[in-house]
Amino acid sequence: MRTSPITISDNTIRRLSKYLRKLQELESEGVQKTSSFELGTLLGHTASQVRQDFSCFGEFGQQGYGYNVTLLRKSIEEILGVNSGLTAILIGVGNIGKALLANFPFEECGVRLLAAYDADPKLVGSSVHGMKVQNRAALDKRLKHELPDIAILCVSQNEAVSAAKYLAERGIQAIWNYTNREILPPDSHVMVENVHFTDSLHTLCYYVTKEKKQSKKQN
Amino acid sequence: MRTSPITISDNTIRRLSKYLRKLQELESEGVQKTSSFELGTLLGHTASQVRQDFSCFGEFGQQGYGYNVTLLRKSIEEILGVNSGLTAILIGVGNIGKALLANFPFEECGVRLLAAYDADPKLVGSSVHGMKVQNRAALDKRLKHELPDIAILCVSQNEAVSAAKYLAERGIQAIWNYTNREILPPDSHVMVENVHFTDSLHTLCYYVTKEKKQSKKQN
User: By the CB < 8 Å criterion, does B1 face chain A?
Assistant: First the structure.
């Protein structure tokens, strides 16, 4: 695969992740070959969109033959940095933190979760889905000696901005933000990926309401 | 506000939700006026992007004066269908279902959560964060008599597709999908909003890995 100097759009990267998910599914079902048409159909995109996304990273398949599912899966994993040994810590073991510890397939994403931290003395020392919860002092200590690649921020909304600032000051370069509070990168070296459930529900509400208004008009 | 016949892009709708979140924040801090420049800066967009998004829905402010925070908040809520009396049910009270029941601000989003359902006999009858968990028969009964606007799907990956099909057949029009399995609309009347945590982490991994490769090259 050639490394391309062109700029890849954020939307392309997000679609790559969808392709990867679908390819993992196909592979687990024993499917060996697929096509841009099939992938597109399964994911609600056109074949041309799929081909265009892949073309940003070079050629993955042969014209008229399609793609080898396993090779394509591996290529996309390489592009996305899955299995490149990234590490993460989780900060804030409330409901959402617990849900991530219990359910999130960190290993499948190639991310090694090193530790979980919380300020609540009732939680510290307990084991949550196999992960021992550590206190703030332990977090301070870790960040002095061994920086993880990603901090997963699950603290309360009120603590979000100050926690992000604290992490940035200690050299964390990527924050996966679950606080439901918009966090702008505290400095230019920090990447923030905001997960906002409300945005997603609002989007659905918009379309549902629009649909309702239209069907009201028709009746 | 005029109702516009033009097509609004999905990205615009998602940004509207971000504006709304920020306006609610500003309002709670007692801020009365804002501008496209300020909103843009707070959210990482340009002022022109903000103005362009609002222009899809008519005029909200006065040139040179800015926006009244409360009025703008209300206008966006109206566009998004917040407070238009939408209802939802939650299906699957595992970790993610529990996290939503415990944390998600349904009321703030103007969505009334009517009930929660699970097939696990151990869960049925218990109360999870104030919501009594009901069984499959109760779900069947509800869907026969009173269709909610939105079904929040939190069942396991394996059950995702069949659950979506079941809901569509009973007339559900919108599915908020937390199963981490891509669901295509089972028929053209059903809207699906997929929430994929992995896509979000993959995006972060891509940028972290890219950054690491670049700094390796420089050293």
Answer: no
